[in-house]
Amino acid sequence: MPDAPGYYAQGPEALIVNLAARGDRDAFAELVRRRQPWLRNLMRRLSGDATLADDLAQRVFLKVWQKIRKLRQADRFAGWIKQIAVNEWIDHRRKQGTAWHEAYEDEAQAAPAQTPAAAIDLDAALATLSDPVRTCIVLAYHERLSHPEITELTGLPAGTVKSHIRRGSQKLRDALEAYGGAS
Amino acid sequence: MSEERDPTLESLFAAAEEPLQDAAFTESVTDEITGRRRRLIFSRFGVLGMILVLEVLLQSPLQQSLGVAADWLGRPLIPLEGEWLSFALSPVNTAAGILGAVLLGVHLFLRSVLK
Predict the structure, then answer these.
(1) Which of A3, A119, B20, B104 is the most buried (most CB within 10 A)?
(2) What is the CATH number that goes with domain A100-183?
(3) What ipTM was predicted for this assembly?
């Protein structure tokens, strides 16, 4: 019998998801291995903090493990984990005492260390946006989601999503010009 | 609805993507799952043990308390002479009957208010 990690590395994701849903921990470890770069990058763009992003990503994977048995269609795993990730981010901000719909504009945060210059500029510029605006922008540009998909993921009204992306893009361009990142 | 994306921002987001393939991260997630499972098993054994201890310690006092409560709930509020008459009026002449009527009234009231 081939060694489990090597065997799983070659399998299609739907199969790995089904195995993980049956309690196969090696299959779940393979899912974590495959999805962690995407999820950690998403959380870094949303939070602007590498340590917090990894913590949030770990929490997302733990929730995935707890709930994966309830996932009916394995081929919907990508959208399903994305929903869990966005919910985790929104819950985290709410627990921090930041009302999800409240804006804290122009509040610059420290850029994370040991990251590419583009990521530093981008994360610093993203930090100037309010939570909902930043979330909409990240989902639109990092995840390349459509407005209706963002509406469904965040629970924000369609008009609000459209306005957040339009105004957020402009503000992000202005902020990046100030940093000299989008010339 | 136009959903055109700014190409400059798109390229910046793409450039900011980091190759975060990290075996230590995967290991920390799987270790946490193992740890949680272990804690869950221990806590279940703990609860089971506590139930068994309480069962042994409280078996006699619990049975006595239940007996006293059942006796009190079934006792006629107004002593009646005839056995059959006492039995027939027991739904309204016992603490249990009155308690049941009060609970039924509260339930009907709440249902009508919340409807």
Answers:
(1) A119
(2) 1.10.10.10
(3) 0.71
